[in-house]
Design goal:
By secondary structure, the protein is mostly helical. It has a single domain, classed as Four Helix Bundle (Hemerythrin (Met), subunit A), CATH 1.20.120. It is built from 7 helices and no strands. It is elongated.
Length: 208
């Protein structure tokens, strides 16, 4: 199913972005430095790639057909599951934006640093869990349950959408933005590897 292949590829891109977001949160905890400009780039990616580019296709082309054609199970899964979680993700990004505004106005207030980290990590955790549900439950359900003619129409709409946004350079721009942040902050896996390689303080020993 072309549309779910595209969406799963986007999931991979978003998951790699979320790993960078978590690395940014670790950087703040370790250095006490908050680059609000970089966190605003997180908001930009979240709204324009994760939400508009990705969630927009799901909501306009796939989820509406699942709600309309797959009975109570489809309605509950989409209306009371996936769409609710999309809105919760948007709420985390609104919270992050508000926290950044407050921190910019009052950089001496530790509570606003806490709010930034809570919103960013909350977004990363929720969206990671959400993507796993879509990959393992929602998309397979759509692939085996939607009529072939409906699948064909969804695929056509997604293909048209992709062609238009490619012309605008949307994918290229936001993946470059993700890579820019990754080059600066690394990933959580990178930080784990560095921590494992670091010498322990005198008198401490790793367990065998």
């Amino acid at each position: 199913m072309y549309c779910t292949e595209v969406m799963q590829s986007e999931h991979d891109n978003i998951l790699s972005f979320l790993d960078v977001v978590r690395a940014m949160c670790c950087h703040v905890l370790e250095t006490k430095e908050v680059d609000t400009g970089d966190f605003r780039k997180v908001i930009e990616f979240a709204r324009n790639y994760s939400d508009h580019q990705h969630h927009g296709k799901e909501e306009k082309f796939l989820f509406n057909e699942m709600e309309a054609r797959l009975g109570a199970m489809g309605q509950n899964l989409i209306r009371h599951g996936m769409l609710v979680e999309h809105d919760l993700c948007r709420g985390h990004i609104l919270d992050l934006e508000a926290a950044l505004d407050l921190y910019d106005a009052h950089p001496d207030k530790t509570v606003y640093v806490l709010d930034i980290l809570e919103a960013a990590e909350g977004y990363a955790t929720l969206l990671t869990r959400h993507i796993k549900k879509e990959n393992t439950v929602v998309y397979p359900f759509a692939e085996r349950s939607l009529p072939a003619e409906v699948v064909s129409e969804i695929n056509r709409k997604v293909e048209d959408f992709e062609k238009e946004t490619e012309k605008q350079g949307i994918q290229q721009h936001y993946l470059a933005l993700r890579d820019e942040l990754k080059a600066k902050y690394g990933t959580v896996e990178d930080q784990h590897d560095l921590a494992a390689a670091a010498p322990l303080p005198a008198g401490l020993h790793k367990k065998a």
